[in-house]
Structures are given as structure tokens and as C-alpha cells.
Amino acid sequence: MPTKLITRPGYEKLREELKYLWKTERPEITKKVAWAASLGDRSENADYHYNKRRLREIDRRVRYISKLFEEVTIVDPSPEQQGKVFFGAHVEIESEDGDIRQFQIVGPDEIYAEKDMVSIDAPIARALLKREVGDEVEVDAPGGKTFWCVNSVTYPS
């Protein structure tokens, strides 16, 4: 099975989420389910049904993160990467029209719907790999070909 890549901050964020879900939220929801069940008729008990559903969501997320931890490889930047775009890089690119974008290239499991992160699997990230400042990149995106210039490449310290 291929290994999934993750940055150290992404791994720590998932680890904290797992700890919160397992140690804090799950016990609270379990108490609410037990309380709602003790009221008797569960068929029309909204508290019971809502919290039972939330408990299933928590358990599903806990299983997902736990399984993910068995498959991931934490990637820390190395000195050899300086100046070139690799996994974990913070990149600034500029389009022909002067549109400037800044983002970090991360694993697909650590994006969290944040605008300043791009999955390593995205066409733009694939096109940027191994590029340096000043390089021009052609990106085959769903909307058509676009051209970008690499303005800066940095790695978190």
C-alpha cells in the first residue's frame, strides 16, 4: 500500500483532533446519550437521536484518523530542498495577468478547507515540483492551460 505524505504540523493537528475527540467530546456525548436514554421512550427523543448520530460521527472520524496514522509518513524539510519546490514548501506564484497566489503544498488529509494549502495531488502542485524561483510553469488545469512564474519558495523552520 502506498504511503501517504503529511507535514509535521498536519500530523500534530490530526493528533490533537484525535485526542480531543477521544478524551473530551466522546465522553461528553456518551453521557448525553445515556441521560437521554434514561428518559424512557427513545422513538421520539430528539436528544437521544441527535447525540447517537454524533457519537457515530465521532467514532467514524476516530477510526479514520487512527487508520491514517498507520499509513502516513511525516515529511520534514531537508536542507537540500532549499530553493526548490517539494512537499511542504510555501510557494508564491504569479500568473501572466499579475494574479499572485501563496500556498503550502501538503497532503490531501491536512487541507481542512483552508485556502492557503494545496494538495500534493493537485495539478498546480504537480507542475511546481522541483521548480525554482524564476521558473515558469505550465499548469494543465481543469479550466485549461495556465502559466505561472515561481516568485518564492520557503520552508517552515
Question: What are its keywords?
Answer:
157 residues, 5-stranded mixed β-sheet, 40% helix, elongated
Quick summary:
The chain has 157 residues and is of the alpha/beta class. The chain has helices at 8-38, 46-71, 123-128; strands at 4-7, 72-75, 90-95, 100-106, 117-119, 136-141, 144-154.
Sheet with the most strands: spatial strand order: 5-4-3-7-6
User: If helices are DSSP runs of H or I spanning 4 or more residues, what is the number of helices?
Assistant: 3
Major sheet description = 5 strands, mixed
Mean pLDDT: 90
Residue windows where pLDDT falls under 50 for at least 5 positions: none
Structural class: alpha/beta
Number of strands: 7
Rg over C-alpha atoms, rounded to the nearest angstrom: 21 Å
Task: Tell me what portion of residues adopts beta-strand conformation.
Answer: 25-35%
> Approximately how much helix is present in the residues?
40-55%
Distance between the termini: 30 Å
Spatial shape: elongated
Give the H and E element order. Answer: EHHEEEEHEE
Verbal overview:
This protein is of the alpha/beta class. Helices cover 40% and strands 26% of the residues. The chain has three helices and seven strands. The strands form two sheets. Strands 5-4-3-7-6 form a five-stranded mixed β-sheet. The protein has a two-stranded parallel ribbon with strand order 1-2. Strand 6 and strand 7 form a beta hairpin. Helix 1 (8-38) packs antiparallel against helix 2 (46-71).
